[in-house]
Amino acid sequence: MEMITRNFFLFLAQNKFIKNKATKWGPRLGAKQVIAGESIKEAMETAAKLNEDGLVCTVDHLGEFVFNREEAIESADYCIRTLEAIAETGVNCNLSLKLTQLGLDVDVNLCRDNMVRILETAKKFGNFVRIDMEDYSHLQPTLDLLDDLRKQYDNVGTAIQAYLFRAEKDVRNLEGTNIRLIKGAYKESPSVAHQRDQDIDKNYLNIIKVHLLNGSYAAIATHDHNVINEIKAFVKENNIPRDQFEFQMLYGFRSELQKEIADEGYKMRVYIPFGEDWYGYFMRRLAERPQNVSFALRGFFSK
Hints:
Elements: H1 2-13, H2 16-22, H3 31-34, H4 40-52, E1 56-61, H5 69-89, E2 93-97, H6 108-124, E3 129-131, H7 139-149, E4 156-161, H8 167-173, E5 179-182, H9 197-213, E6 218-221, H10 225-237, E7 245-250, H11 255-263, E8 268-274, H12 279-288, H13 290-301
Parallel strand pairs: 1-2, 1-8, 2-3, 3-4, 4-5, 5-6, 6-7, 7-8
Helix pairs in contact: 1-12, 4-5, 5-6, 8-9, 9-10, 12-13
């Protein structure tokens, strides 16, 4: 039943017709509980409030299905304005983005040019940019572009998804890179990805430990307190300093645990999505865990 629910919401995440119809009622399905508004201003206000609680942040301007140069350039401009707003407001916050927003499916050179503009802006302000990982078809192009960019910029990293068979190999190849380690949120073929939760969980812990033991910076993105406790014990046993890793969670999920981790002296970063194009992100969150569906329904019936 859990797999059926997951597949259903992943199907909805890619359905453009339903997406267009959903915009008017999405906020009533709990979207506003996990999306920090639609504007840069709202995102900065949310980040400032989280900073007050000892949490650091990263913001992501949501957007998918960019298939022309004008939209890609506009998305890059928006990322640059977001970095400028971070600097102006003084919030402790990075930027996360997706390469498809910047034209990866249109022209790789266009995408690279957009990333260079963004990274130059981030460098000017002493900030860091995270390239979020997308579905399997974009994995190798993303890693190829990252490799190219890292020849010139050290303020850029990416994410690796534990459900992929190749995850450990990619983590080892990215030694020295700031990586966000996640389980994965897309529907992938059994030919490239683990399908059973227990296999994904096992590989997730494995790639975290591999990256930490390599002396590389790890952004450990999980809401699972069992994983968090195991990593706390692991870093202590292996004398891994706290400035070599951070925990990450999504905005709107397990807020009390986020604060608890920060109060213990660990860096706790909150991933803050914002913008009008919330639909695909929200559907993937519902697909990840059945508990998220009840979370959304509570938002609907509380109105």
